[in-house]
Design a protein that fits this description.
Strand order of the largest sheet: 3-4-5-6-8-7
CATH superfamily of the largest domain: Transferase(Phosphotransferase) domain 1
CATH class of the largest domain: Mainly Alpha
Number of strands: 25
Structural class: alpha+beta
Number of helices: 21
Distance between the termini: 59 Å
Largest sheet: 6 strands, antiparallel
Radius of gyration: 29 Å
Number of domains: 5
Length: 658
């Protein structure tokens, strides 16, 4: 089988393109293992990615979430018993630490587990090409300066984040093969996040990391944050010169590649100093010097320079890219000709998008959209233009093409009135110019599937407005207020859900309840995802009968990242309503999840018949466990616990003690 990296669909070996999304399968992982291996009853191994000194990495399929992931296996046979015990303890500690990290340029660690005397770390699978491969393909002898400056700035931002953690996290193995370009969006990712420091003693790649990229102090087992700065300098030196570094010996970059600027050479020279005190003190200092080398200025020039360097990267990996059955049609409205051209290049270099049209003024945009046979899916709208401004243009374009989603782009500082006026006019997103290329592309995708890409600095205005004046913004289909809040003590939640489904709405219901928080997502009236506490899917859905108190917020046009429910919505609701009716009957006995019950056997010796499903609960009816406690102990739902207690109560076998 071949597994699509875009949609995770399984395709037979003979297929050239994905049967679901039409992506080219040329670079997609395929089954290479001679036998079926499923780890932790969840992760099916597909093929090895690589093997390092202390761990092997596999691409796998998460059978529960139906998505690809990377599974890292720790080689325990390399250690003695004492080292093994120490390594496993450190593995667990660091896995839990890494699982908390969230950064756009790091894959997320999603799980870890122990099975058959081996430890495994599960993280996002990054489908793409590493910089060592890009260097071998495009190095003449090295890669372009703009590209490597951009890489350096991005990795410095990652190091800033890692080094700011408490305690600081040191990556320890920075090198070209651990930095990738993600195929789907040309995003730079620092991958192969492991636990190198914890896993060393008897192999070539110990805490040293990788020879040539590691500083002297790391060889002594004393890495620090500035060790990563040295490794980044060595990585940039390699990518600019095409010469693999040898330990502590680096020739002048410009001696090998005269096209490199003196300013960049000075940055690399400072990062490679043998004494940590002579290097950059922080990744922030190095990043700031790289920004100076790049010659960034405030305003639109920042964005244009960033686009230039990122587009050069995308050119290096664009060969052999796949085709999509449907491409997002994007129309650009921008009065600055240079920015307009830059945005045009972004769309042309993004494989799941196509340019629908260009306009330099609001009036021109309206006339062009009017005559388009196929209306644009997304309109990037400058807010400050001569004549009709972006807000007025948005209002008029929404009359001409209601389905089109408008993303406002502005160089102005966030202004409450502008933000609110833009959304009242019909905008779906609001971004500040200067946003990274990858963030802009992701914003277009988010808006296309019904999301609202909003600059964090302006989100406060909207949240405040929705909290205080929800009645001003109406949902287009159901006429239910956008962001409307409900008190679950005053309404029947299941009746609310049934009404939303009947009106075929799309959106998210977020619930905050004393029993458990959760979400329900609807798409065209169909229930496609549900979470209740830690549970997801159909199992979670039937637990929502417990949402009888708390708050609910309905937000339209928001879809989940993963769909966990595929069952027929009508059947789900019928079963849920049946449960609710049962639940109302149970509430006569069990009034709260805090209720405590005690077993009370009759004094006579009559034989008592108990149902098998009621036997498990007897051990917990000692007057100390409440409903929630029993549910946690038995891994049963509150509904199941309540039903068992109700049946026992009717038989005169239990009594409430609180």
């Amino acid at each position: 089988m071949i597994y699509c990296t875009n949609c995770s669909h399984s395709n037979i070996d003979e297929e050239k393109t994905c049967g679901k999304c039409s992506l080219s399968l040329a670079n997609c992982p395929r089954d290479k293992l001679t036998k079926l291996i499923v780890l932790n009853d969840r992760y099916k191994l597909i093929s090895p990615l690589k093997a390092g000194g202390m761990a092997g990495i596999y691409v796998a399929k998460d059978l529960r979430l139906n998505c690809l992931c990377a599974v890292k296996e720790l080689f325990l046979h390399l250690f003695g018993d004492d080292d093994k015990r120490y390594s496993l303890e450190r593995f667990k500690t660091e896995a839990e630490l890494l699982a908390k990290l969230r950064h756009p340029n790091l894959p997320c660690v999603t799980d870890y587990f122990f099975e058959k005397h081996k430890y495994y770390l599960v993280m996002d699978y990054i489908a793409g090409e590493d910089f060592l491969a890009i260097l071998k393909k495009d190095g003449k002898p090295g890669l372009k300066e703009n590209m490597i400056i951009h890489l350096g700035i991005i990795i410095c931002e990652v190091l800033e984040y890692l080094h700011s953690q408490q305690p600081p996290i040191i990556y320890r193995d920075l090198k070209p093969s651990n930095i990738m370009i993600r195929h789907r969006d040309n995003h730079i990712m620092l991958v192969d996040f492991g636990v190198a420091k914890a896993l060393e003693t008897k192999c070539n790649q110990t805490s040293i990391g990788t020879q040539g990229y590691s500083p002297r102090e790391q060889y002594k087992g004393k890495p620090e944050t500035r060790s990563d700065i040295y490794s980044l300098g060595a990585t940039m030196h390699h990518l600019l010169t095409g010469i693999t570094p040898t330990p502590f010996r680096f020739k002048s970059v410009r001696e090998i590649n005269p096209d490199i600027s003196e300013k960049l050479e000075r940055v690399i020279f400072k990062s490679l100093q043998s004494n940590p005190e002579d290097r950059y003190k922080t990744a922030t200092e190095m990043k700031n010097d790289l920004i100076v080398v790049r010659g960034e200025e405030k305003g639109a020039s920042i964005f244009l320079e960033r686009l230039k360097s990122e587009l050069e990267i995308s050119e290096s990996i664009r060969k052999g890219e796949g085709l999509y059955k449907y491409k997002i049609k994007v129309f650009i409205v921008e009065d600055d000709s240079k920015l307009r051209l830059a945005f045009q290049k972004v769309i042309e270099h993004t494989r799941d998008m196509e340019l629908s049209g260009l306009a330099g003024t609001g009036e021109e945009a309206i006339e062009k959209v009017k005559i388009l046979l196929e209306k644009p899916d997304i309109i990037l709208m400058d807010i400050s233009m001569p004549g009709m401004n972006g807000i007025e243009t948005t209002r008029e374009i929404k009359k001409v093409s209601p389905p089109s989603k408008v993303i406002i782009l502005t160089a102005l500082s966030p202004d409450r009135k502008l933000v609110l006026d833009a959304f009242y006019a019909g905008a779906s997103g609001y971004l500040i110019k200067g946003v990274k290329l990858t963030e802009l592309v992701e914003s277009i995708r988010k808006a296309h599937i019904g999301g609202s890409p909003i600059e964090p600095s302006v989100a406060t205005f909207l949240l405040d407005q929705l909290a205080n004046k929800p009645q001003q913004i109406k949902h287009k289909q159901s006429e239910i207020d956008e962001g409307i809040r409900f008190n679950l003590a005053e309404i029947d939640f299941i009746d609310l859900l049934t009404e939303l489904c009947s009106k075929r709405v799309r959106g998210k219901i977020a619930v905050h309840s004393p029993v458990a928080d959760g979400d329900i997502y609807l798409d065209n009236g169909n229930i496609i995802h549900c979470s209740y506490g830690e549970n997801q899917g159909t199992e979670a859905f039937y637990e929502i009968i417990n949402w009888t108190s708390g708050k609910a917020i309905f937000s339209p046009d928001i879809l989940p990242c993963v769909e966990t429910i595929s069952s027929d919505t009508e059947k789900l609701l019928v079963k849920l309503i049946t449960r609710r009716n049962q639940f109302k009957k149970l509430k006569k006995i069990v009034t709260s999840s805090e209720d405590i019950f005690k077993l009370e056997l009759p004094q006579n010796s009559a034989i008592i018949k108990l149902l098998p499903e009621e036997l498990y609960i007897l051990a917990y009816l000692d007057g100390t466990y409440n409903i929630n406690d029993i549910a946690k102990e038995t891994n049963k739902s509150n509904f199941e616990i309540s039903k068992a207690i109700y049946d026992l109560s009717v038989s005169g076998l239990v009594k409430k003690v609180n």
